[in-house]
Design a protein that fits this description.
The protein is an alpha/beta fold. Helices cover about 40% and strands about 15% of the residues. The strands form four sheets. Strands 5-4-3-2-1-6 form a six-stranded mixed β-sheet.
Length: about 500
């Protein structure tokens, strides 16, 4: 709130006030209530229940209680008429949470109907057992709370529910480090040395406000810091406007990427999950594969998921400002360094820089912009970089990305996309059976499933091709090869 940044769980807004312990005011998830306003002036609210750990399993009584509170909030009229978000904040995450439960919540938000959501969850191969069990458990807990629990209601509530992870109590906490950096950015240069003290003052203020079910507004907070603690606060550095401009550019880059094979939406859940798992081992991940395998589509799926939890930047050869950070900073209307700007982004639950088509960047001035951002990202905790490239990238000739920055990020194993999986071919067969024959071994224009996203193009061309009459070949007595048309009905003539 003090820095004017987006609150986690309410992207696109700035905070107007924060309330604590408001169960008496009909706030079912009562630990922290964040009130925000978006760029159009519309109000938004986020209720957060804070728990040390939640396993989200059938035997987890904590999860059962949280869902009971969620059901009460979802029954309020304003849940349908306003932007009303719900979250549980925890301090420890797990593979199941990151690769399954967060995926379910992402699907609920992205898929346009409860019918499609239910189909995704039920489809073997597209979802996994942990995802299905999470939905079953959520539904059962709604039922135990006496709430509606049909498919539409489950989908309606899940798309407003979030799992937020804060590691403040862990050694070397990235959340605390980024928060302290943001505190330093909120002060004028002459007060920068007091940043550590400012963070402690803010923590004590929050604890005291929670103890008396109080609230903090931006006006009251700035007055408290300047009059009682004599802090000199920095003015507005226009980071909110810069964030908006960058988000708009990133959305444009993502929309350039098709996720359709013809008219069929192929869900690349397996490769998205692999990339998420790779990010657990290093902050730099490459998604590799030949042309047409859908690398960019996987990047888009992953970026859209992560954008619900954290900040994303998406660059491509056609969507990158030339000339390095100084030119990008000017275009964004930003006045801070690349590192400070990325640090501010990462303070909202982490951030990821996506670079689509690293192997086809040719403009050296666009490469300079990418290099500047990669180097800055390497200096910011909780900032990752995901790149798509062909298999031979960095093999036939050295990569143009800054190697020292990639080493600092930590290189994770590459995610290699070879071809459509059996489950994905099943989705294709259901959605557009006319494309499937092109993948069969005996089709005269057979296309490898490794280049599946070129199938519609090939299909259109095959329909227009007039195959010449097959010809028979043999060698005459002099060894020369001759041909003649095969006769109708002769073997091979068809």
């Amino acid at each position: 709130m003090l820095a004017g940044g987006e609150p986690r769980g309410l992207p696109g807004t700035t905070i107007t006030r924060v309330e604590f312990q408001r169960a008496a005011d009909d706030r079912p998830l009562d630990d922290v209530i964040v009130h925000g306003i978006d760029r159009k002036g519309s109000q938004a609210v986020l209720e957060i229940q804070v728990k040390r750990t939640v396993t989200f399993t059938p035997s987890d009584t904590v999860f059962s209680q949280v869902v009971s509170q969620i059901a009460k909030a979802a029954a309020k009229p304003e849940f349908n008429s306003a932007r009303y978000e719900l979250a549980v904040a925890i301090e420890r995450t797990s593979t199941k949470i990151e690769q399954s439960y967060q995926e379910v919540l992402s699907w609920a938000r992205c898929l346009e109907s409860h019918e499609i959501f239910a189909q995704h969850i039920a489809r073997i191969g597209q979802s996994n057992d942990d995802m299905r069990q999470f939905v079953i458990t959520f539904r059962k807990n709604l039922q135990l709370a006496g709430a509606e629990h049909n498919d539409q209601e489950v989908w309606r509530i899940l798309r407003r529910f979030q799992i937020l992870v804060f590691d403040f109590n862990q050694p070397g906490s990235a959340s605390e480090l980024l928060a302290r950096e943001r505190a330093a950015m909120a002060l004028t240069p002459e007060d920068a040395a007091r940043a550590a003290d400012l963070w402690n003052v803010l923590a004590i203020l929050a604890q005291e406000s929670a103890a008396k079910s109080g609230e903090v507004t931006l006006v009251s907070l700035r007055d408290f810091l300047t009059t009682q603690h004599s802090y000199h606060l920095a003015g507005d550095r226009r980071l909110a406007a810069a964030r908006d401009a960058l988000q708009e550019a990133s959305i444009g880059a993502l929309r350039d990427i098709s996720v359709l094979v013809g008219t069929v939406h192929i869900d690349r859940a397996q490769f998205v999950a692999q990339t998420r798992a790779a990010l657990d081992t290093g902050r730099y991940v490459e998604i590799r594969g030949d042309s047409g395998v859908g690398k960019s589509g996987v990047l888009r799926h992953l970026a859209e998921q992560i954008s619900l939890e954290a900040q994303v930047i998406v660059l491509s050869p056609s969507r990158t400002i030339r000339g390095g950070w100084l030119y990008l900073r000017s275009a964004l209307g930003c006045s801070v360094s690349a590192r400070d700007f990325l640090s501010d982004l990462a303070s909202d639950g982490g951030a990821v820089l996506f670079i689509d088509g690293a192997d086809i960047f040719e403009d050296e001035e666009k490469k300079a912009t990418v290099r500047d951002l990669v180097r800055a990202a390497a200096e910011v905790p909780n900032f990752a970089v995901v790149v798509t490239a062909r298999r031979n990238f960095n093999l036939e000739e050295p990569s143009w990305l800054p190697q020292e920055a990639l080493d600092a990020l930590g290189r994770a194993p590459s995610v290699v996309i070879d071809r459509l999986t059996a489950e994905e071919i099943g989705q294709l067969r259901t959605g557009n059976p006319s494309l499937v024959p092109l993948l069969e071994e005996d089709h005269p224009a057979r296309m490898s499933s490794a280049t599946c996203f070129a199938l519609p193009v090939l299909q259109g061309k095959v329909r227009k091709i007039r195959f010449p009459t097959p010809r028979r070949r043999w060698r005459n007595s002099g060894g020369a090869t001759q041909t003649e048309p095969r006769q109708a009905g002769e073997k091979g003539a068809d």
